[in-house]
Amino acid sequence: MRLVHSIGVETVLKDLARYIEDDFRSWDLFDKTPRVAAHSEDGVIELMPTSDGVSYGFKYVNGHPKNTKSGLQTVTAFGLLARVDTGYPELLTEMTLLTALRTAATSAMVARHLAPKGATTMAMIGNGAQSEFQALAMRAICGIDRLRLYDIDPAATAKLVRNLSGLGFDLTACKTAQEAIVGAQVITTCTADKQYATILTDNMVGSGVHINAIGGDCPGKTELHGDILRRSDVFVEYTPQTRVEGEIQQMPADFPVTEMWQVIAGAAPGRTSDRQITLFDGVGFAIEDFSALRYVRDRLEGTGFFQSLDIIADPDDPRDLFGMLTRAGASSAGMQRDGAML
Predict the structure, then answer these.
(1) According to the model, what pLDDT value does residue 43 have?
(2) Which domain of life is it from (predicted)?
(3) pTM
(4) Whether CATH 3.40.50.1950 fits 117-283
């Protein structure tokens, strides 16, 4: 939080988008695998690893929609970045906030490539923990500053309006999802319930819009009617993962999609016409977390915010790990005899 405040949240979002875009351009360098997930009726716990051959990173993250009923967060996370040449960790960091920042940065980076030119208005359906970050990123990166807001819980919308008031947005709280999408060139869906839901029906979506669908991010959780997908050009992060977790889990296995790295690298088209419906089926991918970890490591240098933690065994002789343990034991025993052990 100190790092973000020292830089400015919108600058952080723009910087993160640049790091993510750079890593997507280097797509072939990365080890890629769908996240390793442990699913339960209550939610999911996931590990998201990747490496570019120089650094190795992973994120631990959970997703438990019911947590809010107990006063707990839906998502918590931490991550680690390590050197490939030695295997030694360089950075261990909180990633609950960082995940929200990188998710918003990714959405806006994608929208910059796919949204209609000159878009100024976004419908935000689902006004929970991610919504403010999405709004700030879309403005910082795409120039979108008019927000039409809807959530089934009016308190969530009131919270969003309260947090963004005075920050230069044109905010409209809406009573229905149908009302929220009126006049919107970008539609973001970001709901939390783990269920096959229909937040957007086919008749709600007109031609020419960009849909930023980021709420359907695990098996058994979707937000869009399948007919919307059939009418849209669908863009994803990593196809093998999205087919299991994203909106396209409800479609046939051969349903056509384009990976975003191809658009960024110029290997595939993005938006090609004013009437085209583009749809980003965003579930979050390990390379985005790797980019975020890389960014934090780079920006921490010289700030004084970094805390050095002694979490790696460091024996005087690398071959004498047991000797380090026994010397530590003898030292602890001496401290106890002296009454110094607390």
Answers:
(1) 86
(2) Eukaryota
(3) 0.92
(4) no
